[in-house]
Automatic annotation (TrEMBL):
Protein name per Swiss-Prot or TrEMBL: Copper chaperone
Record SUPFAM superfamilies: HMA, heavy metal-associated domain
Domain HMA residue range list: 2-68
MF terms in GO: metal ion binding
Organism: Staphylococcus chromogenes
The keyword Metal-binding belongs to this UniProt entry's keyword annotation: yes
Source taxon at top rank: Bacteria
Amino acid sequence: MKQITLQLETLTCPSCIASIEGLLNRTKGVYDSKVLFNSSKAKMSIDEEILTSEAVKNKIENLGYKVLKIK
């Protein structure tokens, strides 16, 4: 397991959080995900045998949210 944090472009509403959290909860290989509204970050653990941090970034960007940085 690898812990990652994605810095997102500023989130503007609670439905943004719900959309991203829903996606992460449905994504195989993502565990313990949490989206933080005030800091516009998504924190999670990923199983790198199933999924990469770049794949998570692409999934979030396909929803329409820009990922500024992966840490």
